[in-house]
Every structure is written in structure tokens, then in C-alpha cells.
Fold this protein.
Amino acid sequence: MNKAELVDAIAHKTNVSKKETDAILTAIVEEIMAAVASGSKVSFVGFGSFEPRERQARSGRNPKTGEAMTISATRVPAFSAGKSFKDKVALGK
């Protein structure tokens, strides 16, 4: 499912126009990204949580040359699925 398909499904379920649904979905995604970028955790009970995680510096190899190199430490976004989400996926429904 892509964003357009998600907008269609939400608009159909809520009887809200696709244009309004798209604006709401865009605002939600932007707010989640802004919160995680600022270091906050965003949780939706049953669905899951988004949070920033620190990735330590590590050694790696340049795929073109095979030369050893150091990959810098960085902060990355992470998602952890909630229990209800995991259960629903496990059942396939």
C-alpha cells in the first residue's frame, strides 16, 4: 500500500474528502518526523512507537574498492511494533 491508497482507504472509512485526508495524513507524518528528529519518542498504544536510536561508529568496507573504512556514529529513526500490531500480523488478518 502506498500513500495514495492509504488516503483512499481512510477517506472511504471516515467519509472525509481525499484532499482533507491527504492534508491530515501529511501533517501526522511531518509531526512524527519532527518529534523523532528532536529526540522525542512518539507512541501509539497497540500500534507501536517511533524513536531515535544512536548507532555507534563501526568499521566497514568500501564496496567498490574493498578498502577498510570507518563509518561514523549517527542517530537513526526506529520503529517498534506494539503487541496488537504484532498479533494482527502473526494471524494474517
